[in-house]
Design brief:
This protein has 320 residues and is α+β, with helices and mostly antiparallel strands. α1 packs antiparallel against α2. The two termini are 16 Å apart. Bound molecules: the ligand Nc1nc2c(c(=O)[nH]1)N[C@H]1C(S)=C(S)[C@@H](COP(=O)(O)O)O[C@H]1N2 and molybdenum atom (MO). The ligand Nc1nc2c(c(=O)[nH]1)N[C@H]1C(S)=C(S)[C@@H](COP(=O)(O)O)O[C@H]1N2 binds next to loops.
């Protein structure tokens, strides 16, 4: 994200695309050198990203989803090395390194608020209870880059139905783990911690919204939000909150981290919308990671058929 609230955030926080692409070339060059040094295995990993998923971390992926895009998938190496995860630094390359201190077991998700089954669920409950589907979704970051990610997860609605929201519940609030010892970014006031996000209950119940527990057929890497994260493909990436420890059913629109940080730049809804510019840049185009030419950004990130009706009658310039 592109906010500097405190003087301790270096202006180099934003990685210009040029630097990124140069770096990619460099990394590919380095990979080739490593391959020469260590044999063909690494070349195989570069060529076939899913092979880097180690056997012990394999997930039981039951089915493919009709909601998946057939577009080319972003390589595993990019999905797991170019991240936004401010708990592990504001630089896109730092989470891949720094997130490895995050303890993802034991892990529980507490459910509270306006819900019948208030309970703390162990991460294994999710893995055992719901059948895991592959959902290949576009992820569009508000900064203008996008990826195509083969997530493994299950509908958020399946879980919400199990916990039985009360009739007064209108919104769902999500909270990331707070532990400054494990999450060094939380030692700095870059954002208000813990990271929080929210959806309207009907958005949360939309079949496209999933809780992801893996990608490319293996467990979620820590930098991508292990062990469980939200994925809301029609909204800007920051809505897809990582490493969730709490899900609360509430009657009022909950506060959200980026909206609190800069309310004029990031609204509660944050639907991908090429017709509503960010105050500091256009949202009309995006660069798919790995491609040279920019593409047009699509309304609702291309998921309008499934989600446009959620916003019937709403002025999306006002509710951005
Ligand atoms: N807890 C938490 N969740 C987060 C973020 C974050 O900084 N902290 N960054 C968001 C942003 S801005 C984006 S674009 C996506 C990036 O997900 P990825 O790194 O798996 O591609 O995660 C989102 N979820
Ligand atoms: Mo983002």
């Amino acid at each position: 994200m592109l906010i500097k609230k405190k003087s301790d955030i270096p202006s180099s926080e934003i990685t210009p695309q040029e630097t990124y692409f140069n770096r990619r070339e460099f990394m590919i060059g380095a990979a080739a050198a490593a391959a020469i040094a260590t044999g063909a295995r690494y070349v195989g990993e570069m060529a076939s990203p899913s092979q880097v998923v180690h056997a012990e971390n394999k997930l039981n992926v039951a089915s493919k989803s009709p909601f998946s895009t057939t577009e080319a998938q972003t390589p595993y190496n990019d999905i797991t090395n170019y991240n936004n995860y401010y708990e592990f630094g504001t630089d896109k390359y730092s989470p891949a390194k720094l997130a490895q201190t995050l303890q993802t077991r034991p892990w529980t998700v507490e459910v509270d608020g306006l819900v019948k089954k208030k309970k703390t669920y162990d991460i294994d409950y999710f893995l055992k209870t719901f059948s895991i589907e592959e959902r290949i979704y576009r992820l569009r970051c508000v900064e203008g880059w996008s990826m195509v990610i083969p997530w493994d997860g299950f509908p958020l609605s399946s879980f919400l139905k199990q916990v039985e929201p009360a009739s007064k519940a209108k919104f769902v609030k999500f909270t990331t783990k707070y532990d400054p010892r494990e999450m060094p970014g939380q030692r700095y006031g870059v954002l208000d911690w813990p990271y929080v996000e929210g959806l309207r209950l009907d958005e949360a119940m939309n079949p496209l919204a999933i809780l992801a527990v893996g990608l490319y057929g293996g467990e979620l890497p820590k930098q991508d939000g292990a062990p469980i994260r939200l994925v809301v493909p029609w909204k800007y990436g920051f809505k897809s909150i990582k490493s969730i420890v709490k899900i609360s059913l509430v009657d009022k629109q909950p506060p959200t981290t980026w909206n609190m940080a800069a309310p004029n730049e990031y609204g509660f809804y944050s639907n991908v919308n090429p017709n509503v510019d960010h105050p500091r840049w256009s949202q009309k185009k995006e660069r798919r990671i790995g491609e040279f030419f920019k593409r047009d950004t699509l309304m609702f990130n291309g998921y309008g058929d499934q989600v446009a009706s959620l916003y019937n009658g709403m002025d999306l310039k006002k509710y951005f």
